[in-house]
Amino acid sequence: MYLATVTRPDISYAVSLVAEKLSKPTTSDWSSVKKIFKYVKGTLSYGLLYRRDHNPGILEAFCDADYAGDHLTRRSTTGAPCLYAGAAITWISHKQKSVVLSTTEAEFIAASEGAKEVIWANRLLKGMTQLKGKPTMRIDNASALKLVKNPEFHRRTKHIEIRHYFVWEKSKRLWTWNTSKAKIKSPTF
């Protein structure tokens, strides 16, 4: 848990999956934990490399969701790293609190969670360095991006919780959005 939270964003998804079973672990769960340890042992030389010359003063974030990825509960998982100077400074990977009805909704909730990370990282960095321009939030779902930019209430999006609309309100003045096909890969366990 410590590695996933503090120094190794590449294992945070896998660790969150095995952490769900802490109260009643099975042999299969222990096998998954051993695979994570094996991966960490094989990648000891991996790390976060911050570069002074990589987009100086620019905060960049990504948000993504796997629609109904948990086969037992059908909940989606959100992932959202914030990058500065070429490496992650903050990241999240957790299961969404509710079951969603579309990929658009899953991505919209991921954008909402990512927005919280961007706000926190932006405040942190402003206290330490000079930022240039607005942070950039990248989202790879065109429908969710349209909803972020223009949250029209129509039949297909009316059910999305109001609390997720804060991302739309914040995005109008705090950062720029764009679509990105870039995927941040996490090891498969």
Q: Would you kindly provide a written description of the structure presented here, covering whatever features stand out?
A:
This is Hydra magnipapillata. This protein is of the alpha/beta class and 189 residues long. It has 2 domains: 2-42, no CATH class; 59-179, Nucleotidyltransferase, domain 5 (2-Layer Sandwich), CATH 3.30.420. The protein contains 6 helices and 5 strands. It has helices spanning 2-7, 12-19, 27-42, 103-126, 142-149, 166-174; strands at 59-66, 77-84, 87-95, 136-139, 176-179. Strands 3-2-1-4-5 form a 5-stranded mixed sheet. Strand 2 and strand 3 form a beta hairpin. Helix 4 packs across helix 5 and helix 4 packs across helix 6 (166-174). The longest helix is centred in the middle third of the chain and has 24 residues, at 103-126. It is flat.
